[in-house]
Amino acid sequence: MSSPQASSSSSRNGVCLSLQDVSISYGSKEAVRGVYMDIPRGQVTAFIGPSGCGKSTVLRALNRMNDLIDGCSIKGRVIFDEQDLYARHVDPVEVRRRIGMVFQKPNPFPKSIYENIAFGARVNGYKGDMDELVERSLRKAALWDETKDKLKESGYALSGGQQQRLCIARTIAIEPEVILMDEPCSALDPISTLKIEEMMHELKKNYTIVIVTHNMQQAVRVSDYTGFFNVSQRSDRESKVGSLVEFAETEQIFNAPKEQATQDYVTGRFG
Ligand code: ADP
To answer: Which CATH number fits domain 15-266: 3.40.1620.10, 3.40.50.11060, 3.40.50.300, 3.40.50.2000?
Structure first.
C-alpha cells in the first residue's frame, strides 16, 4: 500500500500527528481505510474531498472524539508526542485537552462571554489570573475589541461569527497544542469567514491546525498542506469506503497533483 505522506514537512517542522494505517468503522461498516499521513507541526493542514469520504471521521480520530460515538472503532495507530493516542493507558480527556476541537456550528455554553472562557480553564485546573487568561484568549481569537465592554453578557448575544470566535477563544484558553476545526466557517457569512481565516494565520505561529473544509478556495487560502480524500467502491460486493488519495503541500495539490482523481476534484470535475 502506498503511503501518501508529505515527507518534506517532516524535516522542516517535525511531525505533530502521524497516522499509520488508520481505518475507522461505524458498526460493521468501514467508513475510511488505510490512512497514512504525517501532519506537520506549526502548520495548517486542510482535509478536502467529496461529502462522505471520511474527512470528519479522520479529524475526530485525531483527538479521540470518535470514542463518544457508539459503535465507532479504529484500527491502526495515531502517534502524538511519541505515543499512540489509542494505547490503553492514555486518558482520552487529557488527549482532548491537548488537542482541542472547534465544530461546524458555533456552540457556546449558555453562560456569559467571560464564563465561556473561564469555565473550561477552571475545570482543567487553571490557577493563574483568570481575567488575564480571558483577555489573552479573546485577543488571540480576534474578539477582544468587540467584547471587552460586555464580558458579562451572554455568549448567545453575539453574532454567529463572533460565537465561533468565542468557541475558538474557549479552545485556546485550555492551552492545547493542536486545534482541530470541522468546517468552522460553513455556517458563517463571508466577512466572518475572512476574520477566522486571518486568525488562523496568526494561530499557526503557536499551534498546529487541522481543518476540514468543503471549500477548496478556503483550503488554498489558509492551508500549507492538503490531504485529498475520496470515496470509492472496489467491487460490486463492497460498500463505498473513503481513503486518502494524496497528501502534499497545498500548492502541489492544487497546481501539480500526482493523482488523476485529485486533479479531477480540484478542477471541479466532480465533488
Ligand atoms: P465527510 O466528513 O468527508 O463528509 P464523514 O466522515 O462525515 O465524511 O463520513 C464518512 C462515512 O461515515 C459516511 O459514509 C458517513 O455516512 C459515515 N458516518 C459518519 N458519521 C457516522 C456516525 N456517527 N454513524 C454512522 N456512520 C457515520
So the answer is: 3.40.50.300
